[in-house]
Specification:
The structure is a homohexamer of 313-residue chains. Chain A is an alpha/beta fold and 313 residues long. Helix content of chain A is 32%, strand content 18%. The first copy, chain A, has one domain: Ureohydrolase domain (Arginase, Chain A, 3-Layer(aba) Sandwich), CATH 3.40.800.10. Chain A starts with 26 loop residues before the first strand and ends with a helix. The mean pLDDT of chain A is 97. Chains A and B meet through helix 5 and helix 6 of A and strand 3, helix 8 and helix 9 of B. Bound molecules: calcium ion (12 copies). The site of one calcium ion has 6 residues of chain D, from loops.
């Protein structure tokens, strides 16, 4: 038998410390029959973005940032090294037919749910357009879904002007009946970043809206805590949808639609932690990270940390 | 008649959503006889800067960032889409004669005020040197002017060592009598960023100085609120002068004189909002943004948002 | 009448030298009834790109680079300051429906040709996918078209795998009969950058292919000269299609598909000059410049210079 | 005698203002027999870093950032212009023998202490590996040393897996007996950034650990104040070891191991100020700044400001 | 059995064209018993570099750039899609013991050769220090080795001043007798980039030196052709050692020791092609690419193309 | 006596090889009474630039790039390690008075020449505006001066439109009679980069103009050789004025006015070498390098190499 002393074809050659478990060590490719704790899927679609975006590159970058995190929480004195994350890979998208892409995203999330390999799921966009097919798939599988959306924007634009862009997912979901208005909570909505018409759409459909002004006044954690509690009573599962542009541009400089006056990294992480710990929270997507314009993958690192707060309870 | 289906020579071809009014939609070039709500002028001069600066490029970049903002405030449930901003363009500066440049800035602001087309004005620098001719023009037109200056620095350097640089505008104004010391308020002054002599000059002339320590202790909004109130009683109009380096380098990485320990974007925006809403506040300049060294126009975006908080009351 | 001394609302405030005519001074927006020498149109479409691309931003950047060039050729002791360029603006593209976008490009180029305002045309992409509708429009208007294509790639991929991407324009044109194989000349084709199948497609359809090896041996100018001569005898007009990735990555670092071993800037400019001077050459497109990944707009500057060589004969 | 009017060979030619004392003006090269207030030494070693790092470049960059700071504190109305900083230069490191480098660092710090020219010292890394020889030298010279470490990480990795890396300094110090466990305080430790084993090592050896959760709850200044007080009673001197990655990546984007959820610049500066003012605090190192990956020297500027807070009491 | 429609866990989800074979498609991880055409090994060591270098990252980046190249040469009308490249992975290096690292590199190359799976080999550095253990291993395995070295530098520095750095590999090889002086050819040596002493060392030991002046006069291809011919008669195998800094900084901006006046990309590629086609040429290393300081992986792309010219004959 | 083992306060701590002499080792600050081979002076003025420029930073950056070059020429088998370069430092410029700055530059160059410490001189700009006072000082000191100017531009703009900018130095010199038209040779002049009026000015005054077309046809070395020969017969000394934008943007990406179609690095270096070796060539300035926009100091490295070719004959 060949025996190489310092070569391991097919394996990373990075330095490793025998006592450190990296989150990437918990990750393995899904194979038939496997079961695990959390399913991971990449939804690398960003051609529906209104502004220039290569957020299709984010699933790969965020995955590689997981290598920077360990499985240990000192705050809770707890090591999560036994958590098993099954990676279903990235959906193959169509280069020119965007409707076909949405359809593939829906089918793929559905197929992943149907193998029932895991209890909870992380979905990595892509732009926010991916939440439309994704949440639809969850609704079809689990029944009534509640959604907490971290976002500077309502994302309920009309579809006539540009079709199903990344500005429309929640419009589509609410109008198609896959998501009831009062099952949707929006946190971090920013002034001078939305249209009156869409704010009114939100109010008219009973969407619960919390602005940065609300966050400033009461803190974001109490808001999220209260709404998760409320949703948990009227929905089967809760789905977190994290548009990274909810964070201030200083903390998430790699989002396509960056701007000032948003959440700090600590506010974002604490509020996701708060939400994730409720047992009805079964899924989270992370969207709108464009690695091509980021600084040192800072935004992908933050996204990976958001994911970590969802993974380990 | 020619009819093009998808071409509109002379107009932007960007995606537009029928329900969204962008701030850039409120902007039009001033033409004789027009009147509007806010006058906008560019003061693209930065050759007087002590440290390297291309802040002369900021008027163009900040204007283009206005395209990222809408006219709607969700906090106030109010759409400002009818506000009319008249753009007077940029002052043509002289490439080698800096005194001539200062003179042109003064004359141009004066001429803009004299057509009395608007009630309120935004002036986009350029370096802080532009505030000297600008405030002088306002004083000549309106009489006694009060100034709130957001800045890490006093800007009251002596003129012997380098002439009228961007470190001297308030020295010049106070010494020439165009601005009384106690009509000037400085907020955000940082430790180890100024000289004792100039702090003493400020105290000796009755300039009201608030350091970052003061901001940390009492919050910036109460400081600004109190001082606007005070100034409103002793001056005809109040002029806000926002040196973007008052913000921490994490939030305004594109200022020539960046440094740590400054304001967050939320502190800056909230305090400008607070000031702007007083009816005596008639003008604001925004200075010291150098687009050439910025990251993704982050500092220009913040500057544009500062402008937004002044525009919409 | 208002008279501003140094303000000209709506006009650039840059330094100007009374004896210098910039190419941008020759440019004006097309208005009904106008006629000029060269028509300019922007085709800002890049969502059909296989690899990530924001070449949709190029029309704007290349236009602004025209400001760096004057109208004077010292080599020929000739000033072209009277050339009149009519700018038809940019085609408004659809954010999610790419077939609709192709259709709009075709219609817009067609409509531009139909007003017969100019004799010659420059079309600014966008990715290479724009050449399919553009050349189709020229063929419909002028009859038989010959094409000289500067490119590292054949661009004759199959359409089954991804639809009408930027890798397919010449496949589509040849198969649809809008362009005869031997009316197409490809210069600068690079080794290990194409598939055998597509080289065979080229040969089978009589496309004339010149590789970098050919360029190295005989020089690019003689190749282009000979082929323009040949095409001029068998076609009504000749259309130049310049994929900027024909240039070596050192000279055009901002193309999506950069690579080494390509043309120098001097080879590219000289060969375009050579081609443009033939009277049958009526149009040129310039494609595959992505300003978002460029260094100091270097690739847009080169593209603008390529355009200059076409403009001034 | 030669008299140049505007040339001063060997001196900087920057603009200077007669009333401004820059911190760099307080700095001079140490020469035999000199005495001063603070000794400065560069420890430009980063080849022991686990992840890629050129933090060896930091001593030079941080020194040059001192030029941006003045000696005046407005908060305290005090000018420190008479403080004398003696610069001992940078230790010459060995390019390939890392043990030799550690030995040179130890010897050099020791030799600096032995000339007894100053009362207090600043040491500029390099990576955190430099703290092992540095603190050892202080312990040999002063006897019992207490350490406050700002860091996201424990830095108590095992030495078997990679030798004496930048992840091991405090392990080495504690195990070798140069530092007692309860003489070490770690502030800013972050979740999912450390291994359980090492947290246990810390607890087992009595190291005092404060996480970001602790900072969020009680504020960082009270923590530091309490611990300096405690250490001052049981040690001869206190040494501050500031790993800049304790700061959030938004505030210190140039650290090799950046990440979200850390200290703000204001928290970092205030807590260092608090610590430094105790008379037993005699030394500070600043480590893990990599100028090669920073944005506009932002992290070096923050490091320089941290240094300023130690210098001026 | 699970059947996913658009998911393939463990496989890339990139767009693929059925007729395109990418070089990455020819690559597979070596497994025991396999045989192939070319063996590939990564030597990710750069801590021995004199100037700052993260060329340890190059094996990963160059491999990923292979994805940009196809297997087809139009110049030769030949498709190399059946070539089989066995990837032995990267040698695991030691973080702090550089002698141990050299030893691991030697052992690993040796072990790779001993499984006799391939006829020819590509070795990806790392800095030029890796050539010392690598060539030693080849000499031990094959007997007398001839070397053609593309480089701006002689790399025959003394070992006393810094140990076995990246400036010493050929000194070590010649002095240890593993490489006879006249079995070594250096091409591209640049003026004012080397010391007289080392030029003399080269001459004294019979090393064949060709400067950029020689390249300018006679062309690089004839030089390489002649020397391969000569070496082929006196050695068992020929090993190409390509230090990418032989190329001009415009073509290889990502080398640690960039400079002007070097080879163009076309000169480099043509000369490697010329050398590689001789049957005695069995191995090539590519060194001194630092992806951390490169522009758009330009230098890694060039390196990958150099590799391609060696792979396909 | 203090003895530090590895510390040398005031000296660089870089790795040094005992056999390597770096050019920086030949440099020392001028002190009264010294004499040497070449005098070096920095002219850090760029506020007169028409387009944005921080070329005032170039003297410092180019000096530090000298550290990358050795004193040995392999082409000539000659070591120049005994050459002595006296550095007169940088002229202190005025921040706001540009006429004063020009006056200081003139006086400083004059004063340097008057101490007669050296035979030959290198002057580092700054923008091209510095050549006006510099050449004037040489003319005053040496009598008739001939100038070879490498440049894409004529630099003979009118002075009415913007005063004494970097576009006017040769206009000023010719009109003031300090430089006769036929004593000025311009090489590398580019098409569409100049105005007809200024080309005519050149011709009318007998300036010898060589375009890039001339360079392409006959090679640049013969042109320079012939003109140096000619000038040497009709002038006392010859002064080389190297505007780095004569090089193509691929080779000199850090010039303010970059563009394609220029000289390669090898053409530039070879032609400067050719000129410098004539005994009448006594001075060279290098201008228009802006380190603030460069890539990895590539342009400063090229500038330093240009300087090297002048230094060593
Ligand atoms: Ca969204
Ligand atoms: Ca959003
Ligand atoms: Ca200021
Ligand atoms: Ca300021
Ligand atoms: Ca193409
Ligand atoms: Ca192409
Ligand atoms: Ca540490
Ligand atoms: Ca750390
Ligand atoms: Ca080498
Ligand atoms: Ca080398
Ligand atoms: Ca010039
Ligand atoms: Ca020039």
């Amino acid at each position: 038998m060949d025996k190489f002393s310092f070569l391991h074809p097919g394996m990373k050659s990075h330095f490793s410390d025998r006592f450190v478990t990296r989150i990437s060590d918990c990750l393995g490719w899904y194979k038939e029959g496997m079961s695990g704790d959390v399913g991971l899927i990449g939804l690398p679609a960003s051609k529906s973005s209104i502004t220039p975006s290569h957020s299709s590159g984010a699933p790969q970058t965020i995955r590689s940032c997981l290598n920077s995190y360990t499985t240990y929480s000192g705050e809770r004195s707890k090591d999560y090294k036994d958590l098993r994350i099954l990676d279903f890979g990235d959906v193959r998208i169509h280069p020119t037919n965007l409707d076909e892409t949405i359809s593939r995203l829906y089918i793929s999330v559905k197929e992943m749910l149907e193998v029932r390999a895991c209890e909870r799921y992380v979905l990595l966009g892509g732009d926010h357009g991916v939440s439309y097919p994704a949440i639809r798939a969850f609704q079809d599988h689990y029944g009534t879904v509640g959604v907490i959306q971290w976002d500077a924007h309502h994302d309920v634009r009309n579809l006539e002007d540009g079709g199903r862009t990344n500005g429309t997912p929640f419009r589509s979901l609410v109008e198609s009946g896959h998501l009831k208005g009062d099952h949707l909570v929006q946190v971090g909505i920013r002034d001078f970043s939305n249209a009156m018409k869409y704010h009114e759409f939100a109010k008219d459909h009973g969407i619960k809206v919390y602005t940065m002004g609300d966050v400033e006044q009461t803190g974001i954690v109490p808001i999220v805590k209260k709404e998760v509690e409320r949703l948990s009573k009227i929905t089967n599962i809760i789905y977190l949808s994290v548009d990274m542009d909810a964070a201030d541009q200083a903390f998430a400089p790699g989002c396509p639609a960056i701007g000032p006056g948003g959440l700090t990294s600590r506010e974002l992480l604490a509020s996701v932690s708060e939400a994730a710990k409720h047992e009805k929270v079964k899924a989270m997507d992370i969207v709108e990270v464009d690695p091509a314009v980021d600084f040192r993958d800072m935004t992908s690192r933050l996204a990976a940390h958001v994911m970590v707060r969802f993974l380990f309870l």
